[in-house]
Amino acid sequence: GEVPAPNGEARCILVFGWGDAAARVLGELAACAQSRRVEVRCVSHASQAPDCDLREVCAGHGFACSLTDDDAEALALASGFGPELIISAFYRKKLSSGVLELARDCINFHPSLLPRHRGCWSGFWTIFEGDAETGVTCHRMVEEFDKGRIVHQEKLAVAEDDTSASIYKKILPVTAVCARRVLDQFFSAGLPEGEEQRGPASYHRRHLPFQGLIQAEWPDVQVERFIRAMHFP
Q1: How do the domains of the chain map onto residue ranges?
Q2: What is the SS3 assignment for 180?
Q3: Model confidence over 151-205: pLDDT tens digits?
Q4: CATH class assigned to 11-230
Q5: Are 194 and 170 in contact (CB under 8 A)?
Q6: What residue stretches are annotated with the Formyl transferase N-terminal domain (predicted)?
Q7: Could you give the CA distance from residue 112 to residue 59 in angstroms, rounded to a whole number?
Q8: pLDDT tens per residue, range 46-87
Q9: CB 118 within 8 A of CB 112
């Protein structure tokens, strides 16, 4: 059976998100809200993705949406809402410990198979390092970036002609599937504690890899991967 909200109140879910991937997660939440008492609010950045304004997405679902880049304002918005679940979906800032302390369950949807490619530019590094597969990891958020326990993973094969742009487009529906599986757990038995991350780990910062320049010592296969990895119009 489903886990009821205390006192029969609506389940409050707060989404920190940006771009089309966050829109996919919001879409899955909207589907959940059709048959349950759920109140969803979204916090996003002042500058919205050119192809996806989350204010419009939220308006279509009847969700409230606030735009801010101020950490104190984001914390105030979250505190005033009192969420039971906090979701980060391609949000472009690290959530403060003050925000993470507001809910028992705080989860992030990350576009790689953690612990590989923590941090930024995961699509680039997936192609550049010749990975055979990628995917989306839902993990619990902790103070250290992308290191929390894994709640669920959805995998996706990487094609020999994939670019960062094509990987991003393929990741979007996989993000939705991952969110659907995780929300099903949340509304039924509750989220599991998750599994510790295992295997070779890597972390990438936000700066442009190799300053966007082909290196003279690279073999041809590495150059070809780099060109595909840099293709994101």
Answers
A1: 11-230
A2: helix
A3: 999 999 999 999 999 999 999 999 999 999 999 999 999 999 999 999 999 999 8
A4: alpha beta
A5: no
A6: 69-172
A7: 29
A8: 999 998 999 999 999 999 999 999 999 999 999 989 899 999
A9: yes
